[in-house]
Specification:
Layout lengths: L1 H6 L1 H21 L3 E5 L4 E4 L9 H27 L7 E3 L5 E4 L7 E4 L1 H12 L5 E4 H7 L3 E3 L3 E3 L8 E9 L17 H15 L16 H14 L3 E6 L10 H10 L7 H11 L5 H11 L13 H12 L10 E6 L6 H11 L7 E2 L1
Parallel strand pairs: 3-6, 10-11, 11-12
Antiparallel strand pairs: 1-2, 4-5, 6-9, 7-9, 8-9
Helix pairs in contact: 2-3, 6-7, 8-12, 10-11, 11-12
Length: about 350
């Protein structure tokens, strides 16, 4: 109401239209469906009407991306209108009834208590934040950065319920409380991988592909590989490709580099300063391209106007410089590469041409 009074109906319509367009675009990018516009908000579904194995992860990534879009729009409004805006986002997971209401061909929507709980999570989220319910937490805690649980009071609930604020998504999956089973029947493979690791310790880089049907134990094998590498004194970095990022250019490379360079969402300014210091002798435009790739470029600094192919070559050249050379033998693991985006695949192919250099191992 404050915005409506300050901006007037025409300008308010422009702002809300731009906001809805950005939210809808992000939602669709990650496989979600916008179901309703609710005056000053939207309701979106992930996993219905199209089933998605990783619907909760997609929803979390989309929510964080929407908040980034909202910050950009808020900066524009601050400069033009002198007004501040912020969004709240709430997520909940559970079974719903999805179907048609009324006789209209476009009148499909979701029903159930879990739909209302998502709105309740939104109502208790801080401005600019994302709040998720315990049911969603259970589906994403292996890859999400979350605040400690807190009890919140929600409408029409007799008792407070637990909720957690979503801060970001990890570059690699974690195994919370996992007790690994003994690896059985992989003696030949483990002997081979141990021998290759020892060659890496002696300066002979290698590239290894682990291929097999779904569920056969590839991820378990990779975790054992990482355990052996770490016990041998090697540094390890791991990321995974997700189905919802297969169309996001450089998505996998960006996540892996953020892990390598230790750049977190909460300390982007410090990460940018450390990055510029690390690549102090590099072409400043190349450093800006890298900052853009990692999502830490200052909005006041324009990104170089280069083609996608030139961007890939320049980034690969920068990442391949001595400034990125590890101080110890290093293992990089990328899981589920059948979902890798084309730009990341091309850049990794460029980088792997130098894998024979000492201390690099994939």
């Amino acid at each position: 109401m404050d915005l409506a009074a300050a901006l007037g109906p025409e300008r308010l319509s422009e702002v809300m239209g731009e906001l809805f367009n950005r939210c809808g675009s992000v939602t669709q990018r990650y496989g979600g469906t916008v179901q309703q516009f609710t005056g000053d908000g939207i309701m979106a579904l992930f996993g219905a009407p199209i089933s998605l194995e990783d619907h909760a992860i997609r929803a979390c990534v989309a929510a964080l991306e929407i908040q980034k879009e909202a910050v950009t729009l808020a900066d524009e409004m601050k400069r033009r209108d002198g007004m501040e805006i912020a969004l709240r986002v709430g997520l909940n997971s559970g079974d719903v009834v999805f179907g048609q209401i009324g006789s209209g061909s476009e009148s499909y929507t979701a029903f159930g208590t879990h739909v209302g709980m998502a709105q309740r999570m939104e109502s208790v989220a801080p401005a600019g934040g994302v709040m998720i319910s315990e049911s969603t937490v259970r589906l994403v805690e292996h890859i999400a950065v979350l605040d400690d649980p807190s009890l919140v009071n929600i409408k029409n609930a007799p008792e407070p319920v637990y909720a957690r604020r979503l801060r970001g998504m990890l570059a690699s999956r974690t195994a919370i409380g996992r007790r690994e089973s003994t690896l059985v029947g992989r003696d030949d493979e483990m002997d081979s991988i141990t021998r290759i690791l020892h060659n890496g310790l002696e300066g002979q880089g290698s590239v290894v592909g682990v291929v097999g049907p779904a569920g056969i134990g590839k991820s378990r094998f990779c975790r054992e590989l990482l355990r052996i590498a770490q016990s041998s004194g090697m540094a390890t970095f791991c990321t995974s490709c997700e189905s919802h990022t297969s169309e996001v250019p450089f998505g996998v490379v960006s996540r892996l580099l953020r892990d390598v360079l230790q750049i977190s969402d909460d300390e982007q300014e410090a990460g940018g300063a450390a990055l510029r210091a690390r690549f102090g002798e590099a072409d400043p435009e190349d450093v800006v391209l890298l900052e853009d790739l990692l999502g830490i470029r200052d909005a006041a600094v324009a990104s170089p106007n280069v083609s996608a192919e030139a961007r890939r070559r320049r980034l690969a050249g920068l990442i391949g410089t001595p400034a990125m050379s590890p101080d110890q033998p290093t293992v990089y693991v990328v899981e589920d590469v059948h979902w890798i985006d084309a730009a990341s695949e091309a850049m990794l192919a460029d980088l792997l041409t130098n894998v024979s250099r000492p201390r690099r191992w994939w």
